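Hey, can you fold this?
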Amino acid sequence: MRRPAPAAFASLALLLAALPLLLAAPALAQTAPAGGAVAATGDRAAENAVRQAGDAFGSTIGREVIGIYNQMNVRGFSPIAAGNVRIDGLYFDPVVPPSTRISRTTTIRVGLSALGSPFPAPTGLVDFGFRRPGNQAAASALLAADAWGTTNAEADAVLPVDDRLSLGLGASMRFESGPDATRENSFGGTLIARWNPAPGVTLIPFVSLLHQSLDDHRLTFQTAGEYLPPLLPRRQRFGPDWVNGTGLDANIGVLADWQVAPEWLLRAGLFRSSRNRERQMTNLVRGLVAGRTGTQRVIVDPRLAFASISGEVRLTRQIDEGPRRHQIHFAVRGRSGDRRFGGSDTLELGPVQIDTPSKVPEPLFRFGQQQFDDVKQLTGGIAYEGRWLGVGEVAAGLQWTDYKKRIDLPTGGVQATDDRLLLYNVTLAANITDALVIYAGTVNGLEESGIAPGNAANRNEALPAIRTRQFDAGLRWALTDQIKLVAGVFDITKPYFNLDANNRFDVLGDVVNRGVEASVAGPLTKSLSIVAGGVWLWPKVSGPGVVAGGAIGPRPVGAISQRIEFSADWRPPFAPGLSFDTRLAWRSSETATVSNRVAIPARSIVDLGGRYRFKMAGNNALLRVQISNLFDVEAHDLRGAGAYGPIPGRLAQAYVTFDF
C-alpha cells in the first residue's frame, strides 16, 4: 500500500491539533441563518449543503457540491459547454466559471425548478448566485488543508461606505497537490461595489481575477487496443517537470436593477470572461499495454487566448390580480467571443514505464501558425409567466436568434457557419391537491457544442452550434411540510460529437437521452436531514455508421445508465454544535469507447465527515473535517473516448471558518 510522505500531513495536522481547543470553545446553537442569504459573507460558518439544498438535482453551497447533477453533467449533457448559464438570473457566457469570491452558490435548474427562469434551455440551466454586498459590515475567513499537502486560504469582507455604497472584497491563495501529485498554485482577488445612485436603482460593477503561477498538466493514458488500462498509479507526478504552464482568468462585469415603476422592473448585465494561457500542454501515454509500458507524447501550445463579452437586458411587467400574478418579459441577449488557438508542437518522448516518472529534458519548441475563430449571437425574445395560487402555473416564450461563427483556416480562407432559428418554450404546472403538483413542458434551443478535446486531431477547435430539443414532465409531492419528492421523465435530442476514424472530434450522428430522475430532500426529524436522488438513462446514438459491434456503437461515450446519491446530516441532540454527515454515491458502468466495446465497471464511493460550530471571541466559527473515498476505491476516470486517468484515492481534509 502506498503511504504519503509524513510531510504531506503537516498542514492537516496543524488544523487537527487545534481540535481540543475548539471543542473546549462554547458550542453554537444549530439554527438556520437568520434572514441572511445562504453562504453570505459573515455567515459562512452556517454553510451546510445537505440542509440548504432544495433538491438532489445539483447545488453548490460554498465549498460543497451535492446532487446527481453538476455544472458539467445534467441529464447526460454539459450545460456549461452548451452555453446554458445564468449569473444572478441573467444570461452569461463564461469562458471560466465565476470564482467563489463572486458566486458562493450554484443551482442546477431542471423540470419544475426551471419555472421562474424566463427562457429555459434543453439540458437545464446552471444559475450562479451572485454575492451582493449588504448594508452591514461583515467578514469571513477560511483556512484549509488536506493530507496530500494542499493548503488554501480565503477571505471576504463587506465594507459599507455610506447608506448608498457598499464594497465587497475577496482574496484567495491556494497551493494544491492533486491526486496525481500535480501542482497548481493560484492567487485570486475580487472587488465588488453595490451603489444605489437613486431610489430604485442599483448598480453592481465587479472584477474577479485568478492568476495561476504554476499549473502542472496531468497525465492521460490511452491503451494500445480496445481494453481498459491496468490500474493506474496514484500520487505520482509523472512529469517531465517542464510539463506545466501559467495563466490568468478574469471575470469582469456590471449588474443593474431599476424599479422603473411599481409594476415595471428593468434588469441588465454586461460581462467579459477571459482565459489566457502562456503555455498549455497535453500530456499523454499512448499505446499502454498490460505490462504498464507505452510511449509518451506531449503536445505544447503557444500562448492561447479565449474571451467572450455577453449580457442581457430584460424588462418585466408584473400584473397582480388577487391570487393571480402575471409577468411579461421582454429581453435581448447577446455575446461576442473570440479565440486564438492551434500552432501546437507535438513532441514524441519515447518509451515509458508508467510507474517510473519521466525525466526527459525540456526541448526547444517549434510552434506553427495559430488560428482564430469569432462567434457572434444576438437573441431577442418575449416570455409570459402566469401563477394562480392553488391552481397552477404556465410559462411560455418565443425567441429569435441570429448566430454567426467564423474560423480562419491554416491553409487560408474562412470557414463560416450561419444559423437563424425561432426558439420556443412552453411549460404547464397544475396543483392537483395542496400537496401534489404535476408539470409538462417542451423547449428547443441553439446551443454550443464545446471545443475538441486535447487528444483529438483538431484539439481546441471550436465546434459548430447545434439544434436541440427537449420534452419533460413530472411531479412534485410534499410528503410533509418540509420533505418534498420531485420526479420526472425527459427526452433530449442533440447531434452526437466524438472521435471519428481519423481521430477528429466531429459529428457522428444524433443522440437521444431518455430518462427518469427523482429527488427527495428535507429534514426527517429535527436532528436528521437527507438529500437523496437518482437518474436512470436510456441513451441511444443513431446515424448512418451506427452498428452494434461496429466502429460506432449505439451508446454515447460517457453514458452512465444509473446514478444514485444519498447524503445525510445528523445533529446529535446531546452534543450542541456537533454534526456528522455522510455521502453514498453509486453509479453503473460507463461507456468508454466510441465502439462501445469497453466500459468502466460500476463503483460505489462513500464520504464521511463532521462539523463543529462554536464561538471564538464571540464570533461564529466552524471546524469541518471530512474523509472522501473512505474505502480507498481504485477505478478509472474517463477523460474522453479511450482516454483514462485514476480517480482520487482516500483523502482526509479539514478547514476552519471564522465569521466576523
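Oh, and this one too while you're at it.
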Amino acid sequence: MPNIKRVGPAAVPEDAEQVMIPMRDGVRLAADVYLDGPPRTGPAVLVRLPYDKNGAYCFMPEIGRYFLARGYNVVVQDVRGKFRSEGATEFALHEADDGYDTIQWVTEQPWCDGDVVMWGDSYYGYTAIAAAISGHPALKAISPRVTGSQLSTVLEYGDGTRDVEQTSRKFYYASHYVDADRYEWEPDWNRRPLRDTFERFFDRLGRRSANFDGEFEGESRFVPPPLKALLASPPVPALYTIGWFDNCAVWSWHDVRALSRDPGWASRLHLRLEAIDHENYRLGDAPIAPHDDHADDADALERMLPGYLDPAVEFFDAVLGRSGDLAALPRVRYEVCHGEWSQSDAWPPREASGLEYHLSADPFPSLTAEAVPETSVLRWVHDPSDLVPSAGPNPFAVLFDWPDLASAGQRPDVLRCTGPAAGADLDLVGAATLLLRLKAPAGAHVHARLLDLAPDGRAFLIAGGQVRLDVPLAGEEAVVDLQSVAYRLRAGHRLALDIMSSDFPYFVAEGADGADPWTSPSGEPATREITVGGPRSSCLRIGRWHPEHLRRAPERDGDTS
C-alpha cells in the first residue's frame, strides 16, 4: 500500500496581503498581493497556479518580490478549488473565465494603472494562455513557460497516428487534483492493469478524484479549450519559453507551430528555447549537485532567478513601453546545447541544418548520409512483460539525474542505429522528424530517442518522440515528431537513434490487442519491422522540414510500399 503525505497551504508571508477575489458565480479565489509601501500605481504581474501560492515548490514569494523590485505590482492566486480558494477542484474548466474576472478585479484596484501581464510555468503558464483566450482588453502580454494550450492532452495528428499518453496525466489527477490539497505518493508501476495502483491509492485515502474518474467515463470534460479558441482570440504579445529537455514541450511546439501560421499571432510571437527540463534544471549543471538544486538550496534559487525571470521582465517592459523597444527584441533566442546562445527571426532559423540521415541494416543498424539502393528490413520484438525503462525516475526533471542510456542499446527490444564519429563540431539545428516505413498493427507504439554517443561509450538524450498507430501499417510511412533541436555534436561524438515500442513509466505501455492500457492486461510479445534503403528509405531529417508537411491521411486500401 502506498505511503501518502498530504500537503496543505503554507503560511502567507508577512510582506503579502491575502485577499479573496469574487468570480462571476460568487466563488472566491484566494490571492496574495505584493505592493511597495506606500503602494505605487503601475502595471501588475498576475500569476494563477494550483500548487499553493505560499508553498515551497514554486517559490512564489521570491518571485513576487523579484517582480516587485522591478517596478511591477504582483498578484499570485490559488486557482479555483486549490489550497485557500473556494470552489470545485476541476482541471482546466474555469481558467479562461476566472482569469478574466481576476484581471478585471486587478484593474479596479487603485495601485493598478490598467495594464496586466501574466507569467508562469506549466499549469500556471497554461492559465496565462487561458486568460488570453478570455480576451480581456487589459491583458497586454503573456509569458508562458514549458506549457501549451493543450497541456496534458493526447494530440491527434490526422494521419492515422496520435501521441502516446504520458502516465503523468492521470498521476497528476491523483496527486494535485483530488481536492484542495496535494498528495505525495509513489505509484507501483509494476501492477497490472495500470489503473490498479491508483485504485489502491484512492481506497487508502478514502476519497476519489473526479478528474481521474472522468478519464474512464467516455469523453472527459476536464480538458482545456481547443487550440482554435486561442487562435480565434484577440492576439497579444506572447513570449513562449520551451525547454529542450521538457517532457511538456510537445504542447509548447503544438501551439507555436499553429501561432506561427496565424497572421495575427505570428507578428506578436517571441520564442526563447533553453537547455532546461520542466523543473528548470539546466544541462550545464547536469547531473544536479546539492548546491545547484534550486528546489532545496536557497543560494541556488537566488542564482537561478535572474535567468528565470529577467527575460519576462525585459519582454513586459518592452511591450508596455517602460524600457527597450519590442520591435528590436529578437523574435527567437535559442541556446545550442554544449554551445552558445543565438538568435533568429523565425524557427526553424534560416541557418537550420538541412541534414538527412538514412537508416541502414548492413552490416549493422546504422545512420548513413546516403540511402543504400537495396531495401532490407530491421526488426525488434516488443515484450510487454519487460518494458524499456524511461530515462530516469522523474519525467519532469530528466536533467537532475541525467542518466547514461548506453545500456538501453544492448536490449533486444531496442533498435539502435549509430552514425559515424563527427570529424569536427556539428550543430544540429531545426525541426527533427523521423520517417519510418513501418509494419505494425493498430494500437502499436513507436518511441524514438535521438542520442549523443560519446567516445567513451556513454549515451545521452538529445530529443525524443513517439506515436500510437490508430490504423495498421504494412510498410507505409509513419511520421515520428522529435519536435526541434539545437545541439552541438562535438568532435569525436556519434549521433545514435534508438527505436522501440515502450518507454515506461513515462508513457503508457501498449494495451493487449490495442485495448486501453489502463484497464487491460499486458499482451504477448510482438515483432515490429521497418523497411530501410531503396528509393523511399526510412530517414531522420533535421532542418526546416515541419512534420505536418510530411504527414498524409491514412491509406487504408492496400499496401502503398
